[in-house]
Amino acid sequence: MTTLDTRRDQPLTEDRPLWERYKAAHHWRSAAEEFDACKFGFWLFLSTEVLLFGGIFCAYAIFRTLYPAAFHEGSASLDWRFGGLNTVVLLLSSYTMATSIYCIQTGKFRRAQVNLVITLVCGFLFLAIKGLFEYMPKWSGWFFDPTMAHGTLFHFVEGYGGKRPGSLFDYPFAVSEQMPIWWSVYYSGTAIHALHVIIGMVLIARVLYRTTKGHYGPSHYTMVEVSGLYWHLVDLIWIFLFPLLYLIH
Amino acid sequence: MTGQGGILNVVTGLCVGTGTGLPGMSTLAERGLWHDAWMRAEPATVQGAEADDMYMWLFWFCAFWFVLLMILMGYFVFKYRRKPGQIAPKSSSHNTPLEIAWTVIPSLFLVYIFFRGFFAYMDQVVAPGEALQVQLKAAKWNWTMVYPNGAETTTETADPLGFRRVPVFYMPADVPIQLRMNSQDVMHSFWVPDFRVKQDVQPNRYTTLWFQAQGPSGEKVHSFPADTKDELQVALNGVPYEDHWVFCAEYCGTEHSEMAAIIRVVPEDAFNRWLPLALNDPDAKPEDIGARVFKTKCSACHSDDGGVNTGPTWKDLFGSTRAFTDGTTAVADENYIRESILVPSAHIVQGFSNQMTPFQGLLNDRQIDGIIAYMKSKSVHAPKQAEPGAQPTDVPAPAPAPTPAEPAGTPAPH
Amino acid sequence: MSAIAHAHEHHGSYLEPKGGFWTTVWDWATTVDHKKIGVMYLFAILFMFFLGGMAAMAVRLELLEPVRTVSQTAADGSLVAVIEGQLFGTSDAASIAEGNNIYNRLFTLHGAIMVFMVIVPSVPASLGNFFLPLMLGAKDVAFPRLNLLSWYIYVLGSIFAVAAIILGGVDTGWTFYTPYSTTTDAGYWRVALMTMAAFILGFSSILTGLNFVVTVHKLRAPGMGWFDMPLFVWAVYSAAIIQVLATPVIGITLALLTMERVFRIGIFDPALGGDPVLYQHFFWFYSHPVVYVMILPGMGIISDVLSVQSHKKIFGYRAIAFASLGIAAVSFIVWGHHMFTSMSELASTVFSALTFLVAIPTAVKVFNWIATLYKGSIAINTPMLYVLIFLFLFSIGGLTGLPLGTLSTDLHLHDSYFVVAHFHYVMMGGTIMGLMAGLHHWWPKMFGKMYHEPSAMTGAILVFLGFNVTFFTQFFLGTQGMPRRYASYVDGFQTLHIISTVGSWMLLLGFLIHLFVFIHSLAAGKKAPANPWGGLTLEWEAASPPTEHNFDHEPIVKHGPYDFDTARPPHWSAEDYPLPDEPAGPAGTVVRAH
Fold first, then answer.
1. Which of these, C237, C349, C359, C512, is most buried using a 10 Å CB contact count?
2. Residues of chain A found within 8 Å of residue C211, distances taken between Cβ atoms
3. Which residues 6+ apart lie within 8 Å of C100 measured at CB?
4. Interchain pair A27, C255: CB under 8 A
5. What superfamily in CATH does domain B286-377 come from?
6. Do the beta carbons of residue B171 and residue B132 sit within 8 Å?
7. B132-277 — its CATH code?
8. Predicted confidence (pLDDT) per residue in C160-214, tens digit
9. Is it true that the peptide bond before A182 is cis, omega within 30 degrees of 0?
10. Chains B and A touch (3+ CB pairs under 8 A)
11. Are C490 and B187 within 8 A, CB to CB?
């Protein structure tokens, strides 16, 4: 019966872990073939993601050529230290992701789970830094202050906010007229990227959960590999976004 | 179908057939019935004729190969139809020389088509250097042509069956015209089917389109009543013309299909007579006429917002007291303005020099009245008027319109 | 066909219900069987086709008469303005705009439904899903669960679109050109709903394409090299590559468009420094390749059906295979020919030259097909009739692309009815006719039933005649100066519009006949043999309809897909198909090889 229930119908007759008893879907001749095909298919999917972001990079290139002054001024108001920190965070998470794959391949399940957890934490960190230290102040003027230096967790800086996209742009000190375009490119690029970070984290969380249940092991780790590939792409896109947005001035 | 008529209209439409079109449109002639079945009328420009030739060549080229292929196809299907109990005889499924031939030969044809189309295209889009520059503005859902002298769209017309009133753009025959176009809102596209040319009109940049329309055939002639007082009608009476539809060709919303215009081609001398008169849009308010004239003829030396310039600013001018270089003063009323335009050297305002060109013969009465109205609108000293034409009580009535040579009845300065 | 053996049935067909009504519904809702998914897609696509078709019928009905305001004397002697010739809206003076609004929404609906929900998925999602694994000798596509996900994404996208329509529709045209689509008040959030629908449908397309590419690479039966695959597979594979590479670009375009609409981010808004022509470039970068996603699978059907119905090896197999790939590749570099009137002269020149390049492999295919007919053994039935109809209509469509790709003539023809006629000839005269050919050809295999041949042929002839009457007149409308997307028109165009509308009624009648033929076939059609037409590709070895797992044993490829001169079709006897190297049958029936 070829329905979604196929996998769950397999009887757990012995005490062996799930990954050892893994059977490829009925239309594959072997699990190795299935793994091979899954990787090929996933690389194809990654190419679609590259093309998706290609559109954003294309818009960036065109508008930067048209309005270099606006792009310089806009980029100058970004804090490269937060961007750089996020870059380090993502690079670290890519490393731990790759390590977790290696651990599963070599049967070190505990260590794999730890690495996956660190990857997830890095993802959260990335989003937190972006949200609290970059988006929120620029959008509204409210700064998140974990040191509570001002007595409350948040403090407001007059005139800082208003760096919003398009017609919402309301930043009194802007010199270039086309600043809304810069901010539109910035927000659409980083927001779509952040969405992909979230998707990646969902994939990794699921992999983490299933690792604890013993679904993945040296002879079957397709989903881990594939999630790792996705995460590496997310990291790679940020590696391109970061210098183009933060470092050009 | 709503309204009266319904099915009757459909039947009428069937009977009326193609080629009726707008009165004055060129009729089917000269290029042959088959060409006219495609294009309905002769092209009205040389470049359009080139495009037509290209099209007809392509048509015959495609028709020839299509018929050939279909005959082959039909013949094979008939000749090799299946007979029960028999299978297809052995035949080759591969023939390199044939395959090369039917790849290379079409390619050569395509190269020819591309180049021929490219050269004709260059003629259609590259305007001659001496083309008359006219501005075109597109908005939802109308066209506005702004001529070099500042005249904007003129008479509107409605076709006999009540199609929306569309502007008529007069154009000189046999003169290259280049339109500089931009849109006030969304994308539009300016298409003149008779010229076989179109160009998108965009909101963020200027695009251009050029044409040189051939002279009217003489079938249609302006005929107004012989005793008409309207200057425009007098100038155009007896002048032959030819009309060409203009359609918007980029979807722009609700009334996209009603966004039409008519280009009316008249002989060049008639156009030159018409052009200065066209500043007098009979429906325009004097203030608007004045604003247009100011923009095109006066703003080089005068500002209307208090800015310093070669001549005095028009802001708060009307009704103010002027001090002249000869020691006299005067209140700037209608007569004074008129004199300043026609004989500027008569009184020079203190602080300025005598360098204004006299506009004798260059502006007509309507334009001068328009300037006065515009100045009033820019001045705090102008008496508030309930309606245009009401006479203010503290300013003497302006002298009746004299001939331009003599501003009669000028009150003595005091 | 008197002695064709029936297929052995070790297991039930895939259509057999597994239990009661709700069990069957659940089975279909959670199926990962490519055949069931293909069938579900087929019914959804046909339903959407009729929905979009109804919109077109309404559009053509409005165009029977031009809209005019006339002065009439009312009962009390006063003059009133009355609107004549308008189908939609009421007849008082304010409602030309109202009628236009309805018309504009209808043609947008027609375009959006037809492009995104019908033609792009038409062949790949229905026939492609069903037959790709069968032709390759596989049990399913590479990723069956992804296939089901694709289906549900398609359903979700269609729900978004239908919701946008029911809630009032949008009037931007299916191309959503800015700044109109980002600034029009009409349907503020409905525009976003519709663009999101297209975005979601794009995902369905990407995942299906991805699935097919991996399937072709990894799941061919033993002995089947690349050049042993049926040409339908080559065609679907080439289209799948385009789907994977091009669709993400429309994804990002629509995402940016929606952000522009909702947040006014300004990249397409000239008031904020953006560029509306940039949108056109982004849009057409996908939308041109996608027309080849539409036509390539249709051409693949023609290759297969023509060969089988002529019992003749396809002429120039490799040329057709490489032409498919070539068309896919070149399709990415010609998008500017949709924008000759909004680009610079230099860009227009480059794109025109490149556009002519894509004409060559297309023409080569047509020549190859006609050459295949030579010395064939051609059956005259509905599939073959649709092949001939395709060749006729698609040739006209392709040839009329020449004046559009030629710069000089395009200045006149762009955005006129000539373009409308051209793309209907290639999309409907091409893809839909190909789909009809494929449906009739593979119907017995899919559903195990034959259909009533004479009625189907009548439908085909009506469709052919109706199509030509409807759309050939539109070439003339275009050259004469009728712009597209017009709710009304000036005098002189009415005759042609009337003819075109009458043609649309013939078209509708033809398709309704087909609908009834299909319904009748499913309800009461004759049981179909495993190989009614005598095809040589692997799907004809399976039962009609196939079993759950397609094949009892993994098929081994012993002959090429079109080796009609050396191989006998499976399930056919020597009497029905006497090969020349065999001893003679009853007198007078043997054909000697030349």
1. C237
2. 41
3. B254, B255, B256, B257, B258, C487, C488
4. no
5. Cytochrome c-like domain (1.10.760.10)
6. no
7. 2.60.40.420
8. 999 999 998 899 999 999 989 988 865 568 899 999 999 999 999 999 999 999 9
9. no
10. no
11. no
Is C341 in Cβ contact with B198 (below 8 Å)? yes
- Single-letter code of the amino acid located at A203: L
pLDDT classification of B288: cutoffs 50, 70, 90? confident
The Cα of B102 is separated from the nearest Cα of chain C by a number of Å equal to 7
| Pick from A33, A51, A185: CB nearest C249 | A51
**Cβ distance C562 to C306 under 8 Å?**
no
Query: How far is residue B244's CA from residue B259's CA, in Å, rounded to a whole number?
Result: 14
Question: Domain map of chain C by residue range?
Answer: 2-69+79-592
| CA distance, residue B84 to nearest chain C CA (Å) | 8
Of B269, B189, B211, which is closest to residue B236 (Cα–Cα)?
A: B269
Count of domains forming chain A: 1
Kindly report the pTM of this predicted structure.
0.85
List Cα–Cα distances, C552 to C5, C534, C547, in angstroms. 17, 20, 8
Q: CA A161, CA A145: separation in Å to the nearest integer?
A: 16
Residue-wise pLDDT tens digits, C271-323? 888 899 999 999 999 999 999 999 999 999 999 999 999 999 999 999 999 99
Q: Is residue A23 part of a domain?
A: no
Residue C584 has pLDDT above 90, yes or no: no
CATH number at residue A91: 1.20.120.80
Domain ranges across chain B: 5-76+100-125, 132-277, 286-377
Residue linked to tokens 């100011």: B294
Q: Rounded to an integer, what is the distance from CA B215 to the centroid of its chain?
A: 16
The pLDDT tens digits of the residues spanning A161-219 come to 889 988 888 888 888 888 999 999 999 999 999 999 999 999 999 999 999 999 999 99
Question: For position A11, what pLDDT does the model report?
Answer: 59
Helix crossing, C433-447 with C276-310: angle to 10°?
A: 50
Residues of C in contact with A36 (CB under 8 A): 218
Residue B31, Cβ neighbours under 10 Å: how many?
17
Q: Which range of residues forms the domain containing residue A106?
A: 45-246
Residues from chain C that touch B89, judged by Cβ atoms under 8 A, are: 375, 591, 593-594
Q: Please, which contacts does C570-575 make with residues 24 or more away whose CB atoms are closer than 8 Å?
A: C570/C530, C570/C531, C570/C536, C570/C540, C570/C541, C571/C4, C571/C5, C571/C6, C571/C7, C571/C529, C571/C530, C571/C531, C571/C540, C571/C541, C572/C4, C572/C531, C572/C534, C573/C3, C573/C4, C573/C5, C575/B85, C575/C3
Reported ipTM: 0.91
CA proximity to C133, closest of C533, C530, C547: C547
Angle between helix C345-373 and B96-125 (nearest 10): 150
**Are A and C close enough to touch, i.e. 3+ CB pairs under 8 angstroms?**
yes
Cβ burial of B224 (10 Å; 0-12, 13-18, 19+) is: middle
Q: Given a cut of 50, is residue B382 above it in pLDDT?
A: yes
In a domain, A51, yes or no: yes
- pLDDT tens for B227-280 read 877 777 788 888 999 999 999 999 999 889 988 899 999 999 999 988 888 776
Distance of CA B143 to the CA centre of its chain: 8
CA gap C437, C300 in Å, rounded:
11
Report whether pLDDT(C3) > 50: no
Give chain C's end-to-end CA distance (angstroms, integer): 25
Query: CB distance from B100 to chain C under 8 Å?
Result: no
Token pair listed for A81: 């230290």
Contact B176, C243 (CB under 8 A): no
B196, B51 Cβ separation under 8 angstroms: yes
CATH number given to C2-69+79-592:
1.20.210.10
Query: Cα distance from C9 to chain A (closest Cα, Å)?
Result: 17
Tens digit of each residue's pLDDT (9 = 90 or more) over C27-39: 999 999 999 999 9
